[in-house]
TrEMBL record:
GO terms for molecular function: guanine deaminase activity; zinc ion binding. This is Guanine deaminase. Residues 63-440 form the Amidohydrolase-related domain. InterPro entries: Amidohydro-rel, Metal-dep_hydrolase_composite, Metal_Hydrolase, Metallo-dep_hydrolases. SUPFAM superfamilies: Composite domain of metallo-dependent hydrolases (SSF51338), Metallo-dependent hydrolases (SSF51556). One of its GO terms (cellular component) is cytosol. Its cofactor is Zn(2+). Keywords: Hydrolase, Metal-binding, Zinc. It holds the Pfam family Amidohydro_1. One of its GO terms (biological process) is guanine metabolic process.
Length: 452
């Protein structure tokens, strides 16, 4: 297959490759063979009657970009987008989130809202993601089935909780582990394109026994792990009280075998000590930066530039429903904005409490994230969690969006058009979606939830 269009992708955070009126050649295995400004002779699609002639998909005048990868979202929070943001994390969980997740004990409710959730992910062009489900085993199975049916390729995990949650969401450690293992084994034969991700909610809601059991399951079945870390100062203090014998929050996960090398996602990571930062780097943890959520729940502003400079893998994530918007282009914008606030505060001498002298830029001022950096964080950096995904370099799975901007009245170059889509565009601009070389049609069009 050959796609013709205006191509943009980020092989590295510093490099935005653009090819106006170019070509992406995709092999039968769904992987990119190359990107070109003029089509090499061997790929000429004109040979009529030849069975092996590649198909030309003509997207002239439209952007062709890597699809988005969202490493942190909560599927059962989809019905409560935008609620409870006068709270910080812990009251928000208690007053809004837990009661919302309770509804997923009803299979009909779960089926209805998970269809809407999966369809929305398709719409906004997030074709791979790592999702928390609720603690309900049957509803989680349904979410995985719907994802498999959709053609998207996410990973999903039943959330594990055996302490400090309302009774209606609390299982014993044994039951939680048994339900988890049942899903892991079931998924291996029933949902080949939807992986299982081991999902302790966060340290306050999982006992040592449960965390240790989950670490063992992850090892035994060689699975990835996802959780929350260092999101809110009250939460961090609570973890210190719960585990006074372990030096830091990050060490609690590590001591229970939950920082699997290169296979672990930790959401937020705002309030890290230097030691925690180094441990996350050494374990090659994917940091899911949830800038919108961090604002909504007044959690803090993660120092993205500092973590990148320290060698951490930082990706951009929605954290639905603490982030109110499922669309990753919004989160790219919000990450850049959050980063600019840090820079401005540092210039004022605000971040580190140093007073700056009039007109002098403080040493602490870190340059804000750039558009190519943030786009890379939402595509290639997160894509690595799923394999060779998130770029158009040779060998990458062709996961792509074709974006029709309508008009280009200012005759903008491709880089500016990409920026305009990221800042101003929405799902109505996305005309086609490809996963691993195959076009994916809208999975549950009747389940959008509102007139669109
Ligand atoms: N920490 C524990 N659970 C959650 C959750 O559902 N959302 C967020 N943002 N943080 C959490
Ligand atoms: Fe979260």
């Amino acid at each position: 297959m050959i796609i013709k269009g205006d191509i943009a992708y980020t092989p590295s955070p510093q490099e935005l490759v653009t090819i106006e009126d170019g070509y992406v050649v995709v092999g039968d295995d769904g992987r990119v063979m190359g990107t070109y400004s003029s089509l090499p002779a061997q790929y000429t699609p004109a040979t009529t009657g030849t069975l092996t002639a590649p198909t030309l998909v003509d997207c002239t005048g439209k952007l062709v970009i890597p699809a988005f990868n969202d490493l942190h979202t909560h599927a059962p929070q989809y019905p409560m987008l935008g609620n409870g943001f006068d709270c910080e994390l812990l009251p928000w969980l208690e007053r809004y989130t837990f009661p919302a997740e309770r509804h997923f004990e009803d299979p009909a409710f779960a089926d209805h809202w998970y269809r809407r959730f999966v369809n929305r992910m398709w719409r906004v062009g997030t074709l791979r993601f790592s999702a928390f489900a609720s603690m309900h085993t049957e509803a989680t199975r349904r979410l995985m089935e719907l994802c498999q049916e959709s053609g998207l390729r996410p990973v999903v995990g039943k959330v594990n909780m055996d302490r400090n949650a309302p009774e209606y969401l609390t299982e014993s450690a044994d039951d939680s582990l048994a339900g988890t293992e049942e899903l892991i084994r079931w998924a291996r034969t029933h949902t080949p394109n939807v992986g299982y991700v081991v999902t302790p909610r966060f340290v306050p809601s999982t006992t040592s026994e449960l965390m240790r059991g989950l670490g063992e399951l992850a090892d035994r079945y060689d699975l990835p792990v996802q959780s929350h870390l260092d999101e809110n100062p009250g939460e961090v203090a609570w973890v210190r009280d719960l585990h006074p014998d372990i030096p830091t929050y990050t060490d609690v996960y590590d001591r229970h075998g939950l920082l699997r090398d290169g296979r672990t996602i930790m959401a937020h990571c705002i309030h890290l000590t230097d030691h925690e930062r180094d441990l996350l780097r050494d374990r090659h943890v994917f940091v899911a930066h949830c800038a919108q959520s961090n604002m909504n729940l007044s959690s803090g502003i993660m120092p993205a530039r500092r973590w990148l400079d320290a060698g951490l893998t930082v990706t951009i994530a929605s954290d639905v429903a603490a982030g109110q918007d499922p669309a990753m282009n919004r989160h790219i914008v919000q990450s850049i904005e959050a980063s600019k606030i840090r820079t401005l505060e540092a210039k004022r001498g605000g971040n580190d409490g140093q007073a700056s002298q009039a007109g002098q830029i403080s040493q602490a001022a870190e340059p804000p994230l750039t558009l190519p950096e943030a786009f890379h964080m939402a595509t290639k950096a997160g894509g690595r969690f799923f394999g060779t995904v998130g770029s158009f370099e040779p060998g990458y799975d062709f996961d792509a969006l074709v974006v029709d901007e309508g008009e280009n009245p200012l005759d903008l170059p491709v880089a500016d058009r990409l920026e305009r889509f990221v800042y101003e565009g929405d799902d109505r601009w996305i005309e086609r979606r490809y996963v691993a070389g195959r076009e994916v049609p809208e999975p549950f069009a009747q389940d959008t939830g509102r007139a669109e």
